[in-house]
G/U mismatch-specific DNA glycosylase (Catenulispora subtropica), 175 residues
Amino acid sequence: MADKIDDVIAPDLAVLFCGINPGLMSAATGFHFARPGNRFWPALHRSGFTPRQLLPTEQQELLGFGLGITNVVARATAGAAELRAEEYRAGGVILRAKVAEFRPRWLAVVGIGAYRVAFDAPKAVMGRQADRLGETGLWVLPNPSGLNAHYTVDRLSAAFAELREVAAGDPRGGS
């Protein structure tokens, strides 16, 4: 099993997607959102971010679309419920440093609970956030895990599409 999953990141991305933490399948393969039941890749494609549905093994192709992936917490677990608040807060500090270094136009955290703890924003809701990290706009998307039964692929895709439309029309994260 991999100790950590490498970020898919480059300077000045349109959107840096941020997972909660790697699942065991992702840690075993070294690819983000690798579990077959995870809906990240279908939602990314159906929302219009990619012209076809990529496989986790094709994650480096995201860079060509101005997209990247990182995680709030690097430690792999069977489920996010195994993470402690201190890990989220420490991950938030690391994430802020990545954003300062790479300057994505948007940071999209996929998981409201992770966002609330990592960014000390207990009342945050889904969608565009009022807070920013420098010039980077902040967005919260639903967790695409198959365990998140509240969101179908269609609902996830619609949430992702809203970000895509705003990012295309407001490329620097708004003012």
